[in-house]
Design brief:
three-stranded antiparallel beta sheet, Herpes Virus-1, little secondary structure, DUF1272 domain-containing protein, DUF1272
Length: 82
């Protein structure tokens, strides 16, 4: 099950579980659309994988399977794809 991390790893922008502009790679690294499409050019700076729109969990399922509250940040932010 996806963690649905609460923030962009680059800029620390809040990304609630229902955020339409959240992007993830296959390892669930999480970024906002602005960082993903801008400086990262659609590639995860951690693994080099493709960044895609993060699925949104239905509200009735969030109560039973809540999103993560653990914030993850890249030291020094993001400088571009690997």
């Amino acid at each position: 099950m996806l963690e649905l991390r609460p923030n962009c790893e680059c800029c620390d922008r809040d990304l609630p579980a229902d955020a339409a502009d959240a992007r993830i790679c296959s390892f669930e690294c999480t970024f906002c659309a602005s960082c993903a499409d801008g400086v990262l050019q659609g590639r995860c700076p951690n693994c080099g994988g493709e960044l895609v729109t993060r699925p949104r969990r239905p509200a009735d399922r969030l109560a039973r399977f809540p999103a993560s509250t653990t914030r993850v940040l890249r030291p020094g932010g993001c400088t571009g794809p690997t």
